[in-house]
Specification:
It is a single chain. The chain has about 525 residues and is of the alpha/beta class. It folds into three domains: about 150 residues, 3-Layer(aba) Sandwich (Rossmann fold); about 230 residues, Rossmann fold (3-Layer(aba) Sandwich); about 100 residues, ANL, C-terminal domain (GMP Synthetase, Chain A, domain 3, 2-Layer Sandwich). It has 16 helices and 25 strands. The strands form six sheets. A nine-stranded mixed sheet has the order 2-1-11-10-12-13-14-15-16. The chain has a five-stranded parallel sheet with strand order 4-3-5-6-7. A four-stranded antiparallel sheet has the order 17-18-19-20. Helix 7 packs across helix 9. It is globular, with a radius of gyration of 23 Å. The N and C termini lie far apart (about 60 Å).
């Protein structure tokens, strides 16, 4: 109940508890808008209690996993808090995965209950005999032998008492995209989520007056943890889209007078290329938080030309999204940087031998530790030990350098680095330059094996409509601005880039085809 009182102390870092307190403080405020329907904080809290009752009535207990398979939906956030209220662990599933891939994750998580929309229930239905789930629920009407979540929430079930969600209790299990192997479940605790929220509030100045838009998928840490949870903690208004569509994105920025949004570079690129981009009223926008991959410099200029600062951040699932943050006022003066460490997070660079790098401009692997860093991977002690060292530092596998002012700039994934003739080449540097070419819509740079040099630079490009490009023309464009050892040796023009569900270009697929 919204007004429930506790006879015992409940930790305010608990995911369900801080939301309850926020709802109690301002029940009338708009909390979450989805498909023309807005839930107030009070209404959302009541929905959380009703959904928690549905889960408990079906046998879910503290520590059990509740998996969710659907497109973005407002009830996903209700489910996250409902699970936290009863001490269960929420597992949002990547709806773009195949049936075998989904079955592997559901089995790995040992899910007690699976909730799905009708479309995705049909995908997983043939695999039910292989799954550990004891209950299956559809969002709407019961069918296919599944129960109805919405019907259960309308029943007068007794509201379960709130558990004391301690900081170290796992609340969220997010599976990595698996581009480098089988997906691993990253355990995010109440304390991880709380620390990440505070980092974002302090870095990006979210307030109760902010209207934030999220169209990133809610099975991804960026979708849940960059603008959505921090906005709810501070009492702002979240606008949630079912999926990313450039026109809908621009229309909702205008309609809701959105002040802050989160986008990966691909989203920013597609929105800027839409005919609606220049006419949309984006005057309320004060910040785009960009993450997922380095943003090409020309794209940063495109948004700055409309008066919209782009604040690049750096993070990863294992860090509950946020590691370094670029303050709004630095978005232009430190163009291209992903900022400085969050107030509650330590960051350092190490060389190949594990030594800490202190020289500005020297490149190394970025490592981080703090309250936002995961305890490890679900049922994967070996992988946990390989990523988290004895001193609590998470080794990211990402390359970066830091300037004399302490601002970090990402180079690339260490595994994506090209070594040619003993020289290190970072694809992101070349990609940023190539985005300035008038014929190029999208581009990726990979290394290809070479008997003489070890590796050489290969460019894969998607061209703008009606444009043509050959290697000779490309070299004429980049040669004045690149060292000779960085110059491309091959160019491949393709129709579309392979992407993972988070919008990142899948370079492993490109290497299979072109390296």
């Amino acid at each position: 109940m919204l007004t429930e009182m506790h006879n015992r102390s409940i930790d305010p870092q608990g995911l369900a508890e801080w939301f309850r307190r926020r709802a109690l403080r301002a029940p009338e405020r708009a909390a979450l808008s989805f498909k023309d329907h807005t839930l107030s904080y009070g209404e959302m809290q009541k929905s959380i209690e009703r959904m928690a009752a549905v889960f408990v009535s079906g046998g879910v207990r503290a520590g059990d996993r509740v998996a969710w398979l659907s497109l973005n939906h407002s009830l996903i956030m209700v489910a996250l808090f409902a699970c936290a209220r009863i001490g269960a662990i929420f597992v949002p599933l990547n709806f773009r995965l195949s049936r075998p891939e989904l079955a592997d994750i559901i089995n790995d998580a040992g899910a007690h209950t699976l909730v799905a929309d009708t479309q995705h229930a049909a995908v997983i239905e043939p695999a039910r005999a292989e799954l550990p789930c004891r209950r299956y629920l559809l969002l709407d009407e019961a069918e296919l032998g599944w129960g109805s979540l919405s019907a259960g929430m309308s029943d007068e079930l007794p509201v379960p008492a709130a558990v004391n969600g301690l900081p170290d209790d796992v609340a969220l299990l997010i599976y990595t995209s698996g581009t480098t192997g089988r997906p691993k479940g990253v355990m995010l605790s109440n304390g991880n989520l709380w620390t990440n929220n505070i980092n974002w509030l302090l870095a990006s100045d979210y307030t109760s007056q902010d209207v934030t838009l999220n169209c990133a998928p809610l099975f991804h840490v960026g979708g849940i943890c960059v603008v959505l949870l921090p906005t709810l903690l501070v009492g702002g208004h979240v606008v949630l889209q079912q999926s990313f569509d450039p026109l809908q994105f621009l229309n909702d920025l205008e309609r809701y007078k959105v002040t802050v949004t989160f986008a990966v570079p691909a989203m920013m690129l597609f929105a800027s290329q839409h005919e609606r981009y220049l006419s949309a009223d984006l005057s309320a926008m004060r910040l785009i938080v960009a993450g997922g991959a380095p943003v090409p410099e020309p794209l940063l200029h495109t948004y700055n030309a409309r008066g919209i600062p782009v604040s690049q951040c750096y993070g990863m699932t294992e860090a509950t999204a946020g590691v370094t943050f670029l303050e709004t006022e630095r978005a232009i003066t430190k163009l291209g940087s992903c900022g400085r460490p969050g107030l509650l997070t330590e960051v350092k660079l190490i060389d190949r031998d594990g030594n800490t790098i202190t020289t500005p401009g020297e490149r190394g692997e970025i490592c981080m530790r703090g309250g936002n860093i995961t305890q490890g991977y679900w049922n994967r002690p070996a992988e946990t030990a390989a990523a988290l060292d004895a001193d609590g530092w998470m080794h990211s596998g990402d390359g970066a350098w830091v300037d004399a002012d302490g601002f970090y700039t990402m180079c690339d994934r260490i595994k994506d680095m090209i070594i040619s003739g003993g020289e290190n080449i970072y694809p992101a540097e070349i990609e940023s330059l190539l985005y300035e070419h008038p014929a190029i819509a999208e581009v990726a740079v990979i290394g290809a094996a070479d008997a003489r040099w070890g590796e050489t630079v290969v460019v894969i490009a998607v061209l703008k409509a009606g444009q043509g490009l050959d290697l000779e023309t490309l070299l004429a464009f980049v040669a004045p601005r690149l060292a000779r050892y960085k110059l491309p040796k091959a160019l491949h023009v393709i129709e579309t880039m392979p992407r993972n569900p988070n919008g990142k270009i899948v370079k492993t697929e490109l290497r299979k085809r072109f390296a």
